[in-house]
Design goal:
The protein is built from 19 helices and 15 strands. It has about 450 residues and is α/β, with parallel strands linked by helices. The strands form four sheets. A seven-stranded mixed beta sheet has the order 2-10-9-8-7-3-6, sandwiched between helices. A four-stranded antiparallel beta sheet has the order 11-12-15-14.
Length: about 450
């Protein structure tokens, strides 16, 4: 194999030969030369695997690869996609789609200058946190609030502020790992706090916390196990009980809530998800949660709680490194203001709308796909009942009734069908299961049905 690769080296054209044939004025010359060199190096590394045997073939191959790369550089890498996975808060697809109000506020703020740190009343420098702090406090019952760039950052800065080089008592059953390898023990280590585990995976008693408190203790930490449940022979300690221990020993109780529901989801016919205001009312001194999960906003880590702890967190130098920008505040403010009108959330929030939409409406979209395409010779389309998911650790046990479009073909595999959909002008993402390609229609908007139909028609003529 090595001999074969060496023999093929003479087939590769020079950098100059290739660069002369690239008629592009859209890139600086030195950048084009760099890309040509990169592609030659890549080819040399895999010469043993290529099939061409002439200089012309090697030349054509390299020009094709270089032109493709130049073309890709001119197109956005971050694209709009159609979500046919049935996972409403899909981390890989950007989690929550924003509301119209959030989009308009974001557009206004980013197209123009804004008062991100200017007090318009006094004309003096302002505090960006004041843009949303009042809203968060009104909605949660907290005394103070601040915002960082995600919930992992929120946990990090809270632990670093309140328990640096001190012990943090936490139940073993709450040492969670969520998507993206976010592990509570790792974040705690980076914060400078010292982890003190108590209890066991399935059982932690009140006495376990009591026995662990010492002069070294900095705080008590509770973590909402949002992406799994332990059922059966279990025992855990409530926030109210932990708050009593904290009060007795003058220790703050921090609750990593994760999801961050501002209102009870039961009113929409869904299971209970911990609400921020309930956590604060139960005695949590500081609560951290995400802005882009059930809240339906952008990526953000929100910290709410007692004023003295929030003020201390705000003064931590890490806040400068973790602070959110004007785009986050524009989206977050508009999203929070929608919660002031809970009776209108179904129409205002895309997340709540998808969670609560009637099964008849979802089925209607599936039938539109089936009827618009019909049953072609090599394509078979079946509409069937299924279940969607909230995703991102929200409502982990909730099965949301849904309908999917199942597509099979006698000419191509399910994986090939999936590729055809992903490679469409507007990428369409579904999933492969039981040798079929599936599109769950709960996460597909009505205006996106036509895009799916058009791509199906293209597949039929292949």
């Amino acid at each position: 194999m090595k001999t074969s690769a060496k023999t093929k080296l003479h087939l590769i054209p020079s950098v100059h030969q290739l660069a002369e044939q690239l008629q592009t004025t859209e890139f600086p010359r030195d950048m084009v030369i760099r890309i040509v060199r990169d592609e030659i190096v890549k080819l040399k590394k895999r010469l043993h695997a290529v099939s061409f045997t002439t200089k012309a073939e090697a030349h054509t191959h390299l020009l094709h690869e270089i032109n493709n790369r130049l073309s890709r550089l001119l197109k956005p890498s971050l694209k709009r996609v159609i979500n046919g996975t049935g996972i409403i808060l899909h981390t890989g697809l950007g989690r929550a789609p924003l509301s119209e109000a959030a989009i308009q506020n974001l557009k206004c703020v980013t197209e123009n200058y804004c008062n991100i740190e200017l007090d318009l009343h006094s004309g003096e420098r302002g505090d960006r946190m004041s843009l949303v702090e009042e809203l968060i406090c009104l909605l949660t019952g907290a005394e103070g609030a601040t915002v960082v760039n995600n919930n992992a950052a929120a946990v990090l800065v809270v632990l670093n502020t309140l328990a640096y080089q001190k012990e943090v008592i936490i139940s073993r059953g709450e040492l969670v790992e969520i998507g993206g390898s976010f592990r509570i023990p790792d974040v705690m280590e980076k914060s400078g706090a010292v982890m003190h585990e108590v209890g066991t995976t399935n059982k932690t008693h009140l006495r376990d916390y009591e026995n662990a408190v010492s002069k070294k203790t900095g705080l008590l930490l509770a973590v909402h196990t949002s992406n799994y449940r332990i059922i059966g022979f279990t025992k855990s300690v409530s926030l109210k009980e932990l708050a009593a221990i904290g009060k007795k020993h003058k220790l703050p109780l921090v609750y990593d809530l994760g999801g961050g529901a501002f209102i009870g989801l039961e009113q929409f016919g869904l299971s209970h998800e911990p609400v921020v205001s309930e956590s604060i009312a139960a005695g949590a001194d500081v609560v951290t949660f995400s802005g882009d999960k059930i809240l339906g906003g952008c990526q953000a880590g929100i910290i709410a709680g007692r004023r003295k702890y929030i003020d201390a967190i705000k003064k931590n130098p890490l806040m400068r490194a973790l602070r959110s920008d004007k785009m986050t505040f524009a989206v977050l403010e508009a999203t929070l203001k929608q919660i002031l009108r809970p009776d209108q959330l179904k129409s205002l929030s895309p997340v709540i709308s998808m969670l609560t939409e009637s099964i008849d409406e979802v089925q209607g979209r599936a039938i539109k796909v089936q009827n618009a395409v019909g049953q072609q010779s090599h394509i078979r389309i079946v509409v069937r009942d299924t279940f969607a998911q909230a995703g991102s650790g929200t409502l982990p046990l909730e099965k949301i009734p849904s309908v999917d479009v199942t597509i099979t073909s006698s000419r191509m595999s399910a994986k090939q069908i999936a590729e055809r959909f992903r490679f469409s002008d507007i990428p369409i993402v579904g999933f492969v299961k039981e040798n079929a390609f599936h599109l769950d229609m709960r996460t597909v908007r009505t205006d996106e049905v036509e895009v799916i139909v058009e791509q199906l028609k293209k597949i039929m003529i292949e």
